[in-house]
C-alpha cells in the first residue's frame, strides 16, 4: 500500500483550517488516512481540525493491532468520542476557542478490509474493478432533504443552505459517527476529501480515481487546480490510499 495527503488554502480564505494525514502503522501494512475540515473561522477551526488529526494519528500508532472489523469499529467509536470531548472541553475553557468544530472522515486500510468513519460532510470515495462510488453519506441539512425526497440531487448542488451540517465534532456532547466496511475487489483506491474539493469538482471528474494508469500525485494536483480555477473559495484537502489486490485471504468484511 501507499498513500499521500495534500492541502491547499484556496484562492480566497486567508488561512487554511483543514488538516489531514496519511500514515503507516508501526506494526506493518496497515494505513490510516484522515481529513478534517475545521469550522469557526476566527474561532479556531484550524485548532479543532488539528486536534482531530493529531489525536487520531497518535492513537492509531499506539494501538497494537487492527485484527478485524469489530476491532476497527470499537477504535473508531472510542477515538471519535475522545476527540469530540477534547474539542468541547477546550471550547469551554478558552474564549477564543468557543464555537470551534470540525468534520472528520477517516479510513483504516488493511490488506483484507477497509473501515471508514465520518462525522460531517467531508467524504470518502472508493474505486476498484467494480467502478467508482461515494462510500459515505453527508451529515448535512441538504442531504437530509434529498433523502426525504423534498429536493433532487441536482437542486442540492446549488442549494443556499448546502453548508449547514447536522453533525460535526465539537458542536454537541452526543454525536453518532457513521461507520462503513465496504467490500472491494482487485486494486483499490480510497479518496478522502473536504468539501472545498467536492463543491467544485464533480463526481464524474473524481471518477478518474478508477484509472490506475494515473499517478496519485498527478490526479490530486489536477483536482486541486480545478477547484482553484473554479473559484477556490474554500480550503481544499485530499488524502489517497492505494491498496493492491490481496491474494491470500479476504478476512472479515
TrEMBL record:
Alphabetically, the GO molecular function entries are: protein serine/threonine phosphatase activity
Q: What PROSITE patterns does this protein map onto?
A: PPM_2 (PS51746)
Q: Which organism is it from?
A: Salimicrobium jeotgali
Q: Which residues form a coiled coil?
A: none
Region called Disordered, residue ranges: 1-25
Q: Where is the composition biased (Basic and acidic residues)?
A: 1-18
Superkingdom assignment: Bacteria
Q: What is this protein called?
A: Protein phosphatase 2C
Q: Which CDD domains does its entry note? A: PP2Cc
Q: Which residues form the PPM-type phosphatase domain?
A: 2-243
Q: Do you know which PANTHER family this protein is assigned to?
A: PROTEIN PHOSPHATASE
